[in-house]
Description:
Phage tail protein beta-alpha-beta fold; 30% helix
Amino acid sequence: MSTITAYGQKCSERHRSLSLIDPKHVSLALLAVIGLSTVSASLAQNLSAPTAQQTEWKLQQRFSVTWQGQGLGAVLQRLAETQGISIWLDRRTDPQQAVDLRLDDVSLTEVLEALVKKQALGFTMLGSVVYVGPVKSSRELQALSRQLHESLKRIPSSTKKRWLRNDPSDWPRLGNPQTLLAELLEEASLKLLSKDLIPHDLWEAKQLSPLPLVDRVVLILVGFDLTARISADGEACEVVPIKHPVAVKRNKRKAKRPKPLRRPARKKEKQYSLQLQNQPVGAIIDQLAKQLKLEVVWDKVASKSRDRRVSCHVKNVGLDELLNSVLSPGGLRFQRDGQQVKIMAE
């Protein structure tokens, strides 16, 4: 069983009713909180691809979790989706290891700390990405990043800009890290040397929030105990083994905790309340799409669940939480890019 509860939200799936539903009679209490502004398209994009500051702010948000026998990979994927952050699980970490954990009214940072401690792992931040993996690598990751950033200081500024370009990344299931890294560098007109040092591996599909190219290189290589050496002109990078011990800046605190941050200056997100019981999830989504002007696409598998009935009661939540509250009880999930929503089976 896996449950994530935020802001007192409670949702459950009910038995199918014999009566048919008329979308006009669906009780959708979509009440916009007075005085709050509508979410702009740019804000929606920022929520789906958080900056480093936004990620640190999200790490302070409080909620409750319950996991019983869930695989670590599935737990982290669920956290990433529901909390709107990007999590990188090191390839050396078994994603199938079972997680049994219950926490009430805690921050996302506290959830991650408890989770990695229970699994004998570590976590750290690299830009907007949360890295989870071996304790040693979690301590060294930022230092490896600093080493490469330092080497960029001596190369021409025009080339440096290519290394520091802040872009998101994604790749399909069964991607080969050799090929993925070579393609990332090729897109920036850069060369990859000694790529044969990267062992053959096949990765699951992945979406990564915006991160400088130099840090994406660090993330991909660290799981092989490798890093990169950037050439003097900056036009190429060579794959090399990590030289241990890596010089790590020592902090008085055992673990890095995000400093208290003010919420990034932006328009306030429009909030909604929704109360429904034993209604077809497809009809609910159709009604939401009509009222909120959403472009909704169901994939082939998810469309078979449109008649599944769900119950939900949420109050004063954002659009992503609203959609999750309706879809999750029906065994569905979603990806959102502004007003475009894709619904998939879990």
